[in-house]
Design a protein that fits this description.
The complex is a heterotetramer, with two copies of chain A and two copies of chain B. Chain A has helices spanning 28-31, 73-79, 118-124, 165-173, 189-201; strands at residues 2-15, 18-24, 37-41, 52-55, 58-60, 63-69, 86-93, 105-111, 129-136, 150-154, 161-162, 181-186, 205-209, 225-227, 233-235, 242-244. Chain A is an alpha/beta fold. In chain A, strands 4-3-7-1-2-6-5 form a seven-stranded antiparallel β-sheet. Chain A has a seven-stranded mixed β-sheet with strand order 11-10-9-8-12-13-16, covered by helices on one side. Chain A has two domains: 2-93, Translation factors (Elongation Factor Tu (Ef-tu), domain 3); 105-244, Nucleotide-binding domain of ferredoxin-NADP reductase (FNR) module (Rossmann fold), CATH 3.40.50.80. Chain A has five helices and 16 strands. By secondary structure, chain B is of the alpha/beta class. Chain B has nine helices and 14 strands. In chain B, the strands form three sheets. In chain B, strands 3-4-7-8-9-10-13-14 form an eight-stranded parallel β-barrel, surrounded by six helices. In chain B, strands 5-6-12-11 form a four-stranded antiparallel β-sheet, with no helix packed on it. Chain B has a two-stranded antiparallel ribbon with strand order 1-2. The longest helix of chain B is centred in the last third of the chain and has 15 residues, at 276-290. Classes of the chains: A alpha/beta, B alpha/beta. Bound molecules: flavin-adenine dinucleotide (2 copies), flavin mononucleotide (2 copies) and FE2/S2 (inorganic) cluster (FES) (2 copies). Residues 22-25, 47-48, 71, 73, 75, 101, 129, 132, 167, 194-195, 218-219, 222, 244-247, 266-269 of chain C line the site of one flavin mononucleotide. One flavin-adenine dinucleotide binds at residues 37, 48, 50, 52-55, 67-69, 71-75, 113, 116, 211-214, 241 of chain D.
Chain lengths: 250, 305, 305, 250
């Protein structure tokens, strides 16, 4: 965990409402793993007060990429950064995906901006086969660089299956040996919940990357609990944000 | 000019400088030590400890508000036993004063906690939290009642000769009455302030943004209120005060000392800049240098009204 | 869907919509009328009037704080007589409800003010300010004392059959006790909240940034506190509430209505955007439309906890 | 008094710490007079909360100029505006200088950034002779475009007299007929106070442009009082910011 002042190398609107930020981060970039996140100070003053958490989208040489949705004031300010601006970033935070488990095919399931951590995950798994299921509102919300074997679903059918990504997954997963795959999920809560039920019912290995409002991002505020099956709380920032689907109650 | 003297004395409590980390905003020190040098600051106030472990409140526990945040953590903590076994070993190694913050739902629990923890040499002082707004039992039922605060002070006083600091609730019209009773019952200092009760609702679901409905407001938004509370105590009661509330940088720390704080605690700011306490120590030194102040203690209550 | 009904009823007080301008933040209406259509809003609460004119406190009277401001105007006002002669003629012409806010240093002065002003037909209701933090006499000595608030309510009740709204101090642990006594003594509604006591100091001169030393904190910083106070009253006392504190836009207004406010007042926001009240009225309409709400009054206290 | 959304036409750092902002303001520009001011929203969000008051520096066609010092957070944000940004401005506020009085020579006395209102004042007085006295810390703080007959003083003597502007004024005023001049002063309080004493003692017509922290800028908050000689308060924003030197107690 490092606090680093990073120079903005590029920032562009890659899709309706979706921005791609590239910063030079000699320190965090060498440590960051897929599924980890950074906590970013989006302004130089005290407004907004708290940092904003974003998944590490991609790492290339000494640069880190973040892919984000403009959501409220914080992401709006972040989207207005200019090349050369300095951004104060804490990272890498949390635990990444576990790719060392015994599986042959990684099944990546992304809902909307939940796609953010998957390019780095894809890059990290050189010796696995990868299938990606990517659901979004419509084609205007899809940004699919650095992904492999992508199947799409959209709410309006503008690209891929008209429907949600869980339906898409169910249709396509029939042909695979459920013992040899591992699902990695990231997206909005209802999607993660459906994915959790599906994976657990079918006894498929599954990890989910969760979100929570966060104050600190590294375990000191206790603001981000998630209930576990043994009736305890874990911290999403420190013990997650990636959890085994069998471990948590969504 | 010779080296500036940053030491502060609060009764029998000696601090190497006035910068403390506030309870509940640094856990037990481990995580934040990756970002900041805990040996450089005056001390750490540990997360409120209760006799038994507490899970805390269900999520959502926090929400950002204008220049502040609401939290309803609900005193999630490992309990006295685990604290001693698992947390103290790390704290012991630090060259900073360890102040153990204690919360309880009954008078007996306060007494029991202090009794047990009094044996721990690494604990230099106790901060008695009578002002947590986020629990059903105890909390503000104690903190907003001057009789209870007196009784709790009196009772824990009997259990320890270590310095006792009582952490006061700001949700009262006259905080100085509480400081007075703490003094009368043998408390060594008060800390002011804990958080103010607040809430926020989602206008579409019409549900509270934090599950506990209300939470405690902290951060820069409350700084003017906290300063007024410290000043009120300073002007009416002769007891050392530890100032807390919205301190984001060394300037805020100085402002608190001027209105009467002998030391200060940094809370919410740790979440945004976990190295802020070290930067504040540096800032205090620079300020003293620039203002020709030899002993920082001379700043305390030096307001010109 | 037919036209959305924005009207609000508070006892015998009928408002064409829930948006009021808060006392002390619009003077007597003249200046702000250059920026905003006063006929479009629910009503205006005039600057606190006292029996005799008051010069107010010496400068500096205000200072900005994080997401807020402190003011110590000290109830500067023209006094009842000049108010009637010079200010009412302008207010009379408006198609908005005029609520006259009254401040006093003695019980007798409250009574006298209401007695005199009760004859003014253009005044629809009284808001009794028992909670100004910036004056030596009266103010919080009244506002933080439940007996005084009861007595004042009882006494002014005898002088008028017009609706009486008592404006409560937030500087107390249980604001609902104050709402209860207002109800008991025949008050029609309470408004919550007035400002919180705060201060700010210059770290180089060590002097207070406002001459009065302390001031009242207003603005977005206090919104979470104000919401919690309104909710507390709503959950315990059956009396209409007018919500005030940090309302900057229609979303904030809706949030206050959800936690229990029948109407809201816009204060500090007028300084930044003097047309904000009109924008809030529009926003309320749009929100109701989008949420399929026919009568805005159905929002009041509609929280889901 | 108008609320107007104005487009930034240019913004430049004209001197160490001093910025010149030019905005397109078809409405306020036609009404604004020398000595009046505008209250500017320096950000698009609620931070900082209050507007910041600035004198009307100059008006040209439909454009208004503001000359300002970077002082704190608010002026810092204002200095970061870019061409094309929209700035929310309320103006014109207060009463300007009274130039219709009977005098032959206008004596403009500026301390530091207090020079701001004088270019428009200079432009307004076509049928008067004008002498300008301009004091500043050093030559790096002097911006003197659109002024006439300037005499300088600086604390370090880097340009003009080494000393303060009141000394400069006293030296140079000896040759003028005190009955035929009117002094216009703007600058920091100690300077205005000295100027007031000088003008009143010598019975010279004198108007002073005052500053005060302001919340509203147009008379509704009562935050900006100034004591008058008849033991009352007037409002700097509404009754001023320009006052007769005989009227007020500094
Ligand atoms: C571990 C983690 C990784 C994330 N990765 C990404 C990513 O790669 N790309 C992306 O676009 N978004 C990501 N998010 C969500 C992102 O943090 C929020 O969209 C962002 O904080 C919204 O801030 P705002 O000020 O624009 O919105 P506002 O709604 O104005 O924010 C108000 C408050 O709520 C919090 N908040 C709002 N939405 C969320 C959310 N979904 N999750 C957490 N906090 C939230 C904010 O942090 C802030 O404290 C991630 C969240 C977490 C926890
Ligand atoms: C009528 C009038 C005209 C002015 N004209 C100009 C001008 O043309 N050029 C220029 O550079 N400055 C001018 N000023 C001063 C200018 O308003 C302040 O420098 C500015 O408000 C500072 O804001 P800040 O956030 O950068 O500073 P901060 O010190 O961070 O501001 C904190 C608070 O104090 C207030 N404040 C600080 N200094 C002053 C001040 N000197 N006067 C009034 N309020 C202050 C701010 O408005 C804010 O509310 C004028 C002031 C007034 C009242
Ligand atoms: C997330 C969070 C948790 C807190 N937990 C505790 C606690 O356990 N015990 C306690 O005495 N105070 C607790 N506090 C209060 C702080 O110690 C401090 O009094 C308050 O936050 C005001 O200071 P600040 O504005 O600098 O944060 C907590 C505050 C926050 C924000
Ligand atoms: C400058 C100023 C003057 C005020 N004067 C009065 C007053 O005379 N009487 C009164 O009852 N409240 C007064 N108030 C309090 C407001 O009416 C309101 O209760 C408070 O500001 C909180 O609302 P806000 O956050 O929207 O400003 C004043 C507030 C401000 C900022
Ligand atoms: S966000 Fe602070 S503990 Fe997780
Ligand atoms: S600034 Fe509000 S009255 Fe002058």
């Amino acid at each position: 965990m490092i606090i680093e002042k990073c120079i903005v190398q590029s920032i562009e609107k890659v899709k309706s409402n979706i921005f791609l930020l590239k910063v030079l981060s000699p320190n965090i970039s060498t440590k960051g793993k897929a599924g980890q996140f950074c906590n970013i100070k989006v302004s130089e003053n005290d407004f907004p007060l708290l940092r904003r958490p974003f998944s590490i989208h991609y790492i290339e040489n000494e640069s880190i990429y973040f892919l984000f949705d403009v959501h409220g004031e914080g992401t709006n300010l972040l989207s207005q950064k200019k090349i050369g601006d300095i951004v104060d970033i804490i990272g890498p935070l949390g635990n990444g995906f576990n790719i060392n488990e015994d599986f042959e095919t990684a099944v990546l399931v992304a809902g909307g901006i939940g796609v953010a951590p998957f390019p780095l995950l894809t890059k990290s798994m050189v010796n696995k086969s990868i299938i990606t299921f990517y659901g979004a509102r419509n084609s205007e919300y899809i940004y699919d660089k650095n992904l492999l074997n992508i199947n799409y679903s959209t709410d309006d059918g503008s690209i891929g299956l008209k429907g949600n990504v869980i339906d898409l997954l169910k249709i396509n997963l029939k042909n695979l040996d459920k013992q040899k795959i591992k699902i990695f999920g990231c997206g909005p809560s209802p999607m993660l919940k459906a994915l959790q039920i599906f994976a657990n019912e079918n006894n498929i290995k599954c990890e989910l990357a969760l979100e929570s409002v966060m104050a600190c991002g590294f375990g000191i505020c206790q603001g981000c609990p998630i209930e576990t099956v043994d009736n305890n709380y874990k911290l999403i920032c420190k013990d997650g944000p990636v959890f085994d689907a069998k471990e948590i109650i969504l | 000019m010779s080296e500036i003297d940053l030491t502060i004395t609060i009764g029998s409590l000696k601090l190497k400088n006035p910068v403390l980390l506030a309870s509940g905003t640094v856990g037990y020190g481990n995580e934040i030590s990756e970002f900041t040098d805990l040996n450089k600051i005056g001390g750490i106030v540990t997360k409120s400890i209760s006799l038994k472990p507490r899970k805390g409140n269900p999520p959502q526990r926090i929400v950002e508000t204008p220049s502040g945040m609401l939290n309803a953590i609900g005193l999630a903590n490992v309990g006295v036993e685990t604290f001693i076994k698992e947390k103290i070993p790390f704290l012991e190694k630090l060259n900073a004063t360890i102040i153990c913050n204690i919360a309880a739902s009954t008078l007996e629990e306060y007494i029991e906690c202090v009794r047990i923890l009094n044996n721990e040499n690494s604990i230099t002082a106790f901060e008695i939290n009578v002002s947590c707004p986020n629990v059903k039992d105890g909390g503000l039922i104690f903190g907003n009642d001057v009789l209870w605060v007196g009784k709790i002070t009196e009772s824990v006083r009997k259990e320890t000769s270590k310095p006792i600091i009582v952490k006061l609730s700001p949700n009262v019209p006259k905080i100085s009455e509480f400081a007075l009773v703490v003094k009368k019952e043998g408390g060594d200092a008060v800390s002011a302030i804990n958080t103010l009760v607040g809430t926020a609702f989602d206008i579409y679901t019409r549900k509270p943004k934090i599950k506990n409905v209300t939470g405690g407001l902290s951060g820069p938004a409350i700084k003017p209120i906290a300063l007024a509370k410290v000043l009120e105590i300073k002007r009416t009661v002769d007891i050392p005060i530890i100032g807390i509330g919205g301190i984001m940088n060394w300037k805020d720390a100085i402002e608190f000392m001027i209105v009467g704080a002998s030391a200060i605690q940094v809370g919410t700011a740790n979440f945004i800049n976990p190295n802020v306490s070290n930067e504040i120590v540096d800032g205090l030194k620079e300020y003293c240098k620039s203002q020709n102040i030899q002993n920082i203690s001379s700043l305390v209550g030096s307001y010109v009204i």
